[in-house]
Fold PH domain-containing protein.
Amino acid sequence: MQKSGWLQKKSSGFLSRWQTRFVIVWDGFITIKHVPSKNKCKQFETVSAVKETDDKSFSVNCKDGKKLLLQCNSVAEREEWIAALVRGALEDMHGDGDVRQEQSNIDKEQTQEYENSGNLKQTPLEPSNSVISRNGREFRSLSYPSGQYVGEFQSGERHGMGRFEYHNGNVYIGSWNKDRKCGYGTLTWANNDQYRGDWKDNKMWGYGDFKYHNGNSYTGNFVADNKEGFGKFIWNNGDMYEGYWFQDEMSGEGTIKYINGNMYVGEMKSNLKSGKGRMRWASGDEYEGEWKAGVMNGIGRFSYAEDGLYDGAWLNDKRHGRGTMKYVNGDVYDGMWQNDMRQGEGRCEYANKDVFVGNFVANFREGWGVYTTAPVKVLMPDAALPKVLPGDEYSGNWHKDKKHGYGKYSWSDGDCYEGDWENDLRNNHGVCVYSNGESLDTWRDC
């Protein structure tokens, strides 16, 4: 249905191709004035559902199967129409239908508390004329200490549909029960935060949609004004969390999809990754294991897109403790780590089958250690198969991956040197014993 004509201050209708119909909009509640009647209350029926299609329009699914569309030229015009139609509805509409809008789509800022003014029962400041409707409810406009109410009353209490404008600029439109917000309703704060959904005992309670003035939004379950149960939170930068909440915090199983392509699937606690979970980066890196307070902490496996696979202990997002790293070049290190570096006792088997067992400092062979080269195959005279001989072996001190200090080097052919080393070279004080029995007491590599 396309609206046409000028908005009339005292009219809640507009023209349509169904000339006998007039639409009254009440922030998600729509009624259709369909036939003339002497009884004003019987001129209205409540439609079954309302779905907003964009900021400028919404569609109406009527009970008779017809679908109407209110289309405005701008968001401001749409809001002007709704405001005027609400006033008209409050003046003219007295139906029993309490129809709930279908819900659609998180971030109520964790540090900000939202005032639901009117949580305590308030006594009206002034009486007003009332009209008794067919269901026994009164329709009034009353002033309260915290604001102005226009809507239905029963037994002296706000009961049914009504609108409350708080002095602080907040506005609630929706259902009331015994003077408290209860059922479906919309609360718009003065800072333009808005909640649409279920209420109970003056609190957001049930399913609802919370949109924040900073562009964040939450859609899901509420308990006593807190996000609790399953819900979806979308930040204004496009990041999204979908999962479980407890007392207004992400807590339990959930999924975080980042706008940069990263994704986390796993357990959350107090808004942070905590427990077991899997994180996949857009770069191709992937971690699966334990988390604590938002960082990798505990036992986990990290697959590096360009460096290899680590399986072991973590602390504060760094390899720390015992772990095994399989590098893409074929090297394998198994041992202790500290602050993401090989530190302490470890064993490294290199791609060429050389093996080092000893101490590491800041990824370097440092201190005492034994280095063995790969076994060699030697073709012996008159032998059908080559003989496998053990490789060379150095046992001694190291400094930054070089033989440095005192050490012994044994060659596979039987030669041996024992003495001082400096930067991988034999240095002055040492004895070299050859396989033929000869020896040299002083040695210095050139």
Notes: The CA atoms of residues 210 and 259 lie 21 Å apart. The domain at 352-441 is CATH 2.20.110.10 (Histone H3 K4-specific methyltransferase SET7/9 N-terminal domain). The chain is about 5% helix and 55% strand. The first helix runs from residue 75 to 92.
